Amino acid sequence: MRALLDFIAKYYHWLIFIVLEGISFVLLFQFNHYQNSVWLTTANTVVGTVNEWEQRALRYITLGDVNEMLTQRNLLLEQNNRALAEYIETLTHDSTRSELLQADRLEGITLIPARVTTNSVMRRDNLMTIDAGYDDGVRPEMGVVSGTGVVGIVYMTAPHYAIVMPLLNSHSNISCRLRGSQYFGYLKWDGRSPLYAVLDDIPRHARFKVGDIVETSGFSAVFPAGLFMGKVHSIENSDDGLSYKLIVHLSIDFSRLQNVCVVAQEFQAEIRDLEQRADSLMNQ
Amino acid sequence: MITQFLQRLLWLVVLVTAQMMVFNYIHILGYATPLPFVYLVLLFPLGTSRWSILLWAFVCGLLCDITSLTLGIGAAAMALVAFVQPVLLRLMTPKDAPEDMRPAFSTLGFWSYCNYAAILTALFALAYFALQSFTFNHIADLGIACGSSWLLTFIICLVFEALRDHKTEEQH
Question: Which residues of B touch A (CB under 8 A)?
């Protein structure tokens, strides 16, 4: 308060000057029609411009929500698209069976939206944190996808957050197939470029070419079949020479990932429990 | 103190009356209009409180506005000149000058006083005509009106100052 009073005492002439100029301008606009009309026109233009900026800023701020909505919408349309593509392929054989298959695949899948809070792509074992957790229905071993493809698998959960093991982790191992051919293998990351992963165990007799689409095989309870993973970039021989090793250009740019969805399948827990019991029996 | 106040009041009445009765009717070629009431601001000696200069100038400008039907224009321009005057005078005054030195030919020197008056009258004319036209669409007309009016105002201020200075010297 004292500092303010000192400031006013030191610069009081500024205050008087501003007040006198203010009074002068009020008189100027009040009693001179020409100046008044010019002032109003200019003021309206300025107010209009400021309003336009405000609207632009508001639209920009709400882009996050729009993006989240579009991600979910994109996933749904991708599922529909895949189901329709398969439906068209099987239409010549048995349309009734195709419809049943499509309905079966989409049934029981719940998408839990989340935002990526922390992420890394530079390490060999990268992890990612999302802002949806146990309270939102997220459980370990659930799949995580974005609008453009598969992201990874939920590793650990807390009440409001979850740790995701993305594709860019040396322990990640996702069952995939080549679209249209049904040959499948396991997609792993070799720790080099975050844009590429390796699809192993494709048999030597399989027929495919560079540019073919790689998608989830659906051979686990984590991801439904047909989710887009990427495209074949190049073809190499496996280390033992018995199969092919495909270099896959991933569909997701992990360094810019913001919105994801956790895929919750209705009977996932039941299937996993059954698989664990079967494994333990086999190991005995 | 009271004498000084009465002197300023007298100058105020004389300048406003002269503006109202004579100078408002001069429009040479439709452009040049003298506005010598700004001379009141030129009179204030060094060390005068700034609020006092601002108030005198504002009142003088406002009175001229009321008599010329240009409400706000003269008052705003005079307040601006009054705000700048103490700073300019301090810059143009020799360091050994007394703290209450009056700006005049005899104290500042002829050319220094001319510079002092030229800068303040130019600032005044610029502010006055900018506010009057309130647009820069006709900048050539504005420049001619501003320049010619400034020249007339400047000359009249110098004449006033010459008369006042001469009278002061005679009294001494």
Answer: 50-51, 54-55, 58, 61-62, 65, 70-73, 75-76, 79-80, 83, 131, 134-135
Which domain CATH number covers A191? 2.40.10.350
Decide: helix, strand or coil at residue A149. Answer: strand
Closest residue by Cα to residue B76 from A38, A35, A12: A35
Instruction: Examine the pLDDT at A106 and tell me if it is beyond 80.
Output: no
Query: Which residue in B65, B70, B76 is closest to A21 by CB distance?
Result: B76
What is the pLDDT at residue A26? Answer: 93
Is the dihedral angle over the CA atoms B58, B51, B41, B7 positive or is it negative?
positive
For residue range A235-271, list pLDDT tens digits in order: 888 888 788 889 999 988 888 888 888 888 767 777 7
Rounded to an integer, the average pLDDT of A278-282 is 78
User: CA-to-CA distance for A113 and A100, rounded, in angstroms?
Assistant: 27
Q: Check CB contact under 8 Å for A34 and B134.
A: yes
How far apart (Å, rounded) are the C-alpha atoms in residues A7 and A118?
47
User: Given this model, what pLDDT does residue B40 score?
Assistant: 95
φ/ψ region of A226 (left if φ > 0, alpha if ψ in -120 to 50, else beta) reads left
* pLDDT computed for residue A103 by the predictor: 45
- Whether residue A15 lies within 8 A of chain B, CB to CB, comes out as no
Residue A162 structural domain: 110-266
**Is A74 within the bounds of a domain?**
no
- For residue A12, list chain B residues with Cβ-Cβ distance below 8 A: 51
Residue A68 lies inside a defined structural domain of this protein: no
| Closest alpha carbon within chain B to A34 | B134
Residue A140 in any domain: the answer is: yes
pTM for this prediction: 0.52
Q: What is the pLDDT of residues A125-169, one digit of tens each?
A: 888 899 888 888 898 888 898 877 889 999 988 888 999 999 999
